[in-house]
C-alpha cells in the first residue's frame, strides 16, 4: 500500500459631549481579551492526549474519538506500543502539513495491523458534545472539544432514520488527520499535522485530533517532498496517561462551552465576513 500522497469600523455616538459609545462588537472584543477564569478551562482525558517529543521540541495533541473512534484508537494503540518512536517527518509541505508515522520513513509502509475505514464524516446526535459557534442556515459550525467541525442543522435530525445528522471535521491549522492511499479505507499508521488551514481535505480525510501545544514546532519541521536527509523525527510518542505522574505535564485547555470561548467567537464574528471556525483561538496551558 502506498500512502505517500495525501491529496490533497466603529461608529461614534454623540450620546454625551466627547463620549464614545461602544458597539456590541467592541464590547465582545474586549471581553475576549480578558483573562479566562477557572470555569473557562477543562482538563483533557489523559487517555486522549499524545505527547510527541521531537528533535525540534514537544508537541501535545488531543485525540477526539467522539468523531473518529477508529483513527483515535489506532493512534493510541500504536503509541502505547512505541511504534512511533524514531519515525521521521518524511513529507512536509509549506502551507499544508507534516506527514509521519511510516516504519519505512518514506510513505510506503504501515503497521502490521489491518487498515481501518475512513471516518470522513460522522453522525451527530443529541448526545454528541458539539458546541455550536455559528448557525449558517442549513449548517452548524462548532467544536467537539478542541476539534472544529461542521454538521447539517440539527433541525433535520427528526427527519432522518437514526435521528442524527451528518458532520465532519475541519482541517484547520493544528488538526491531526489520517493519511491514506487512493482507497478510502486504506488508513493504517501514518498521520499528518496541519501547518495551515486546508479545507480541500474536509470530508475526504479523517480528522481525529488537534494540536493543543507546540504548533510552532510543527511549523518548524524541515520541509521537503520528500524531505532531504537528515529528516526531523519523533523521538518519543506517548499517551499522557502512560507517563509517570512525576514526569507528566499538567495540561488544561479552554472549554468551548465556557464564557471566554463564547466571547472569543463573538470577537471573530465582529471582524465581519463569513464565520470560519479556523479563525477561533483555543488557548491551552502546559506546566
TrEMBL record:
What Pfam families does the record tag this protein with? Pro_isomerase
User: What EC number(s) does this enzyme carry?
Assistant: 5.2.1.8
Residues of the PPIase cyclophilin-type domain = 48-222
Keywords, sorted A to Z: Isomerase, Rotamase, Signal
Domain of life from the UniProt record: Bacteria
Query: Could you state a single Gene Ontology molecular function term?
Result: peptidyl-prolyl cis-trans isomerase activity
Where does the UniProt annotation place the signal sequence?
Answer: 1-21
Protein name as annotated: peptidylprolyl isomerase
Taxonomy-wise, where does this protein's organism fall, top ranks first? Bacteria, Pseudomonadati, Pseudomonadota, Alphaproteobacteria, Caulobacterales
Q: What class of enzyme is it?
A: isomerase
InterPro entries to which the protein is assigned, alphabetical:
Cyclophilin-like_dom_sf, Cyclophilin-type_PPIase_dom, Cyclophilin_A-like
